[in-house]
Amino acid sequence: MSPPSRRLQTKPVITCLKTFLISYSLIFWATGVILLAVGVWGKVSLENYLALAADQSTNAPYVLIGTGACIIVFGLFGCFATCRGSPWMLKLYAMFLTLVFLAELVAGISGFIFRHELKHILDKAFTTAVKQYNTTDSHHNALDTIQSTLGCCGINTYTDWNGTAYFKENGIPTSCCKVKYCSPESLKDLKQAATEVYEQGCFSVVSTKMEANLGIIAGVSFGIAFFQLIGMFLACCLSRYITNNQYEMV
Known about the structure:
Structural class: mainly alpha
Shape: rod-shaped
Order of helices and strands: HHHHHHHH
Distance between the termini: 6 Å
Number of strands: 0
Number of helices: 8
């Protein structure tokens, strides 16, 4: 049994660590809400763009949604474990923080890697979507939404529609119209269409927007991931101090 003076010196340390860890767990819970929100925002904002490159899209938004939901649950578990002062609960909490750290690193790296491959993937996806465009094609709605909401048309310019099977029968898609009504005759004539449709291509617009959005997702992932290191350190230290204090009292 250790001297009473030593046990008295240990208790303030444990109290201090508990206070820091509870504060951290509450902040950790809040970061879970942020991750969940960013993941949902990324999924919604990138949905139409990822639909064009469905075979090569990134899973980063889904990883963030799943990780955020788990963090919300385990953030509360961390507060409970700290209040109980249970060494095994604190060790379990530290292990979970380690898994979250790795998951967020994967999400961040995935976002950055996909960001660098973005232009090649989008170029290929847009070329395929424009050439195979028709009302029954799976990419039809995604391409129409992109053209109408971002104010663009075609890959690099609206004339990219010339030579496609759809253009020969129907002309340029109505989703390219910058006016309320485009006449069918104008859509079938490139010179007349220049005054009624968007002239800028979608490739540069979409690649810039996706790079910015994926950059935000990756940045948030890395920032919160390294924040877990603080929790891992606090949980391990508190678990060790509580275990040592229990042994000293025997």
